[in-house]
Structure formats: structure tokens, C-alpha cells
Design a protein that fits this description.
Elements (H helix, E strand, L loop, with lengths): L1 H5 L3 H19 L6 H19 L2 H23 L3 H6 L1 H26 L1 H10 L5 H13 L5 H12 L7 H13 L2 H14 L9 H14 L4 H10 L6 H10 L2 H9 L1 H9 L5 H16 L3 H6 L36
Helix pairs in contact: 2-3, 2-4, 2-6, 4-6, 7-8, 7-10, 8-10, 9-10, 10-11, 10-12, 11-12, 12-14, 13-14, 14-15, 14-17, 16-17
């Protein structure tokens, strides 16, 4: 979640705060019967519920004030006489323990969250409706360069071995590998496209579509043989995936193959059951072919936006194409 990315210590700190509040209420006023007992347990539970449901910023403010309170309770006692500590041993011990555990949790959880395994885990859990957060996590992994290819590859392999594959993590890992662009990263993407993607049936293939295009973005003309083979094996209703990916390679032979199938792509757009994300993917590819003036224009079409995967890379072009997910212009194939 977004909370795990920006404040990985929040949930642990709320737990410590809850335990501290319960202990302080118990020791300050011994438990009695009836309404008072409910009060002693009700206050901590209410406080915990309040911190869970309130906005993140308010929760952090409450916990920050609580830590300042603990410092104000613990530090003055340390400078007083030993008798003062003995008289206030239980509350001093509880406050000091809560303060120590809080700082340890903040350090440990933040370190774990900023590690490569922690970032990969967070990357898969963030909702696609927070693309800025998704790209923030992916950018931190990409900046680490080829050293993260192995852990990304291992995570991708484990994810694809599951019975149900969520489209978010595989596509985001593929995006990181595509942006890193090292030979090892390209090899991982090639292996996934060649061995893991099966387009021989008419099933939902959101992550497969994105990974094929990301492989094309990364490898360019080197991706053509694998994508051509995928096109030959693909179901008729799934051929648009390797075709859109072939267009993004910028290879002239691949573009000729796409132009030969333009009628099939336009026919699929007219089908009433064509997924909106896939329709946008086809329309944007056709627009790039019609209006693009360089191979880079073909790669810049924002086909990932309507897939709702959290991928929103920069799609600006030097030629200033105004991308339109509803594009229905004419494609002059002989001129192309």
C-alpha cells in the first residue's frame, strides 16, 4: 500500500502505542468492575481504531506528539536523583521501553522497506490508482542498476509460477528491467516472452500484453524474432498483442508485418466485446504508425495507461503528437 512505501513503520508504531496506552491505564488505576473496566479497555481500543481509520497525516501527527511526550517523561527523570526513579519505576520503565522499541522499529522497518526485497514487495502492493507512488518505487529500483536484475528475475519467476498471476507485479518488474536495459535484463524479458507467455487461447492477457511491449521497448529490433514467433502461435483474437509490440521495436520489417495486419486490427476494434484497454492499445499503435516520424514515436505511445497497471511513463515526443485513445483516423498504408 501507499502507507507501506512512505511510512513503513506506521502500523508497528500504532501497535506499540496501543500496548503502551493499555499498560499505563492498567497501572495508573487498578481495574474495577462495571463501567470503569469497560472504560479502561475501551479507551485503548478507541484510540487504536481512531489511528487506523483517520487520514495518514493525522495519525503521524498523533504518534509524533506521543513520542515527544515520552521524551519529556523519560529525559527529566534521568537527570534527577535515583530516589525519583525508584518512586516512578513502573511508569519510567514503561515509557523508556516504549520509546526504545519505537525508535528500533522505525529504524528496522525503514531499512527493510528501502532494501531491494522491500522495494520489490512494496512495488507489487501499491494500487494502480497511485501511479506516482508506483513510479517512485520503480525509479528507486531502476537507479540501482544491474545489481537488482537478479532479485527482480527471481521474484518474477516465483510470481509466474503461481496458479493465479496478478498483473501488477510482473508488469512493474518488466518495466524496471526494460528501463535498466542491460544485456542480463533483456535476456530475462526475452525468456519470459518466449517461454512464459501463451496466446493460444482467448483469455485475459493484461500482463502479457504489457510485458511484450516492454520487451520491445528494451530490445528494439532484437525482439523481432521472438515476437514474430509469438504472433504465429497466437490465437486470432490475441494477435494484436505481438503486433503492437512489433510496432514498438522500430524495425522496418516488423512494421511491414504490422501494416499487413491493419485490417485485422481495425476489425477487432469494431468487435463489441473488445476490452477498452486493448482497444486503446490498438488505436494508439495505429495513431503512432499514422503520425509518427521516427522509431521513437512508435515507442512513445501511452498504451499502458488504460491497462490500469500503474504504469504511466513519459509519452511526450519531439514531433509533438497529441495522443488520443479514441483515435479513428485513416492509415495511408501505401504511403507508409
Amino acid at each position: 500500500s501507499v502507507t507501506d512505501v512512505y511510512t513503513p513503520f506506521l502500523n508497528s508504531l500504532i501497535g506499540v502505542f496501543f500496548g503502551w496506552l493499555m499498560i499505563m491505564l492498567i497501572f495508573n488505576r487498578p481495574l474495577t468492575k462495571g463501567t470503569k473496566r469497560f472504560f479502561y479497555f475501551g479507551v485503548p481500543i478507541f484510540a487504536l481504531g481512531f489511528l487506523v481509520i483517520i487520514p495518514l497525516g493525522v495519525g503521524l501527527a498523533v504518534l509524533f506528539c506521543w513520542i515527544i511526550y515520552l521524551l519529556c517523561r523519560v529525559l527529566p527523570i534521568l537527570f534527577k536523583k535515583e530516589e525519583t526513579i525508584r518512586k516512578n519505576l513502573i511508569p519510567f520503565g514503561v515509557n523508556a521501553l516504549a520509546l526504545t522499541v519505537s525508535f528500533i522499529l522505525i529504524f528496522v522497518t525503514t531499512t527493510q522497506a528501502n532494501s531491494t526485497p522491500g522495494l520489490i514487495k512494496s512495488m507489487g502492493s501499491v494500487s494502480p490508482f497511485y501511479p506516482a507512488t508506483v513510479h517512485s518505487v520503480m525509479s528507486r529500483l531502476i537507479q540501482r542498476g544491474p545489481e537488482v536484475v537478479d532479485p527482480l528475475s527471481e521474484t518474477l519467476e516465483k510470481t509466474l509460477d503461481r496458479d493465479y498471476v496478478s498483473p501488477f507485479l510482473p508488469t512493474r518488474i518488466a518495466y524496471c528491467l526494460s528501463e535498466i536495459g542491460s544485456p542480463q535484463a533483456e535476456a530475462v524479458l526475452k525468456q519470459v516472452v518466449a517461454e512464459e507467455i501463451d496466446l493460444s487461447d482467448n483469455e485475459n492477457t493484461k500482463w502479457e500484453a504489457a510485458v511484450c511491449c516492454l520487451y520491445a521497448d528494451c530490445a528494439g529490433p532484437r525482439a523481432v524474432p521472438v515476437l514474430q514467433m509469438l504472433l504465429e502461435r497466437a490465437d486470432e483474437k490475441q494477435q494484436f498483442i505481438p503486433l503492437c509490440a512489433l510496432a514498438r521495436t522500430g524495425d522496418f520489417t516488423a512494421i511491414e508485418t504490422v501494416l499487413e495486419h491493419v485490417d485485422d486490427l481495425q476489425k477487432q476494434l469494431k468487435h463489441p466485446f473488445t476490452n477498452r484497454g486493448y482497444a486503446a492499445m490498438i488505436r494508439l499503435t495505429l495513431q503512432a504508425l499514422a503520425e509518427g516520424q521516427s522509431p521513437e514515436d512508435l515507442k512513445a505511445s501511452p498504451i499502458y495507461h488504460r491497462m490500469l497497471l500503474g504504469l504511466r511513463p513519459d509519452h511526450q515526443t519531439q514531433t509533438g503528437i497529441v495522443w488520443n485513445q479514441q483515435w479513428d483516423g485513416d492509415l495511408d498504408i501505401p504511403a507508409l
